[in-house]
Amino acid sequence: MSFAASTFDLDRPASPARPLIDPFARAITYLRVSVTDRCDFRCVYCMSEHMSFLPKADLLTLEELDRLCTAFVVKGVRKLRLTGGEPLVRRGIMTLVRSLSRHLKTGALDELTLTTNGSQLTKYAAELKGHGVERINVSLDTLDPDKFRAITRWGDVDKVIAGIDAAQAAGLKVKINAVALKGVNEDEIGDLIAWAHGRGMDMTLIEVMPLGDIGEDRLDQYLPLSIARARLSERYSFEDLDYQTGGPARYVRVKETGGRLGFITPMTHNFCESCNRVRLTCTGTLYMCLGQEDAADLRMPLRASEANDLVDAAIDDAITRKPKGHDFVIDRRHKRPALSRHMSVTGG
Ligand code: SAM
Ligand code: SF4
User: pTM value?
Assistant: First the structure.
């Protein structure tokens, strides 16, 4: 399958587009796209065991996803991240990656990347690299096969590690993302860092965020990274770094391993002041903030016209509504999800 020539005609704006600047003077240069809400795992902090997924008919087609991403690139977005759900289980995903990679070739885009659970990487790593993807994030919370199965509800850690092997063999730079989970992987985080850094991979720790009903109590899962970091300091010495990847992580160098460790702390330290991103779902809903309900429907304007005027206007209008930040809280009085949608809808 290849996209119609008309898709590419839409790449050329009729007049130079205005860059996307929100009401707090933040330039929006980063779009994260959840290409599917489906996944081959059911991680306990992300999904409930019996999730109901969107009917396939509600999804944007790959051509429509391409058209929307391109509209953002024309408006100054420099980095695209495909996520989900599991992006590599979306049928035909490589067609989209190949098509979006034309923006790398023209220099309109600095980076095309993805966040994946790694289960399909043995199949796709080489192709991703061939389409100009340089770095990927792989989510892995434990190396213990039983714990991995318990966290993902049925995943096979060996398959993920084989996927990471394939990615590195293909020349992709891999960063490991691990969610810090109280009583689950908290004793293993130090070893996970040693393992990742030993293979030349950066690692980032993430705090659990209260997104979606998962049929469990968040307080049981929540481990503040301030506590994890204090414990890790007994084994490692950290040196603060200025290093930035365009994401919300704050990085340190771990002196003993020489590797980089990031901390994503939406709960204990709010990073919203430097937010440069918006998130698009697989149904064409644009969320201006991961932690707020307000959203803009881009599917309707997209489908209403073959030209991009309506969709451009809808994007401009949405950016004027980007909020200052989220207000997540997890404590004894706030055990319910702050938002009803799951992380797999908006894309992590
Ligand atoms: N399936 C892919 C994966 O697991 O990498 C991409 C989507 S997943 C939603 C993206 C990231 O969000 C993963 O690193 C996952 O661990 C993280 N995540 C999911 N639910 C979360 C939650 N409630 N709080 C914090 N991180 C979460
Ligand atoms: Fe799937 Fe990723 Fe959510 Fe786990 S975190 S259930 S792998 S979308």
Answer: 0.91
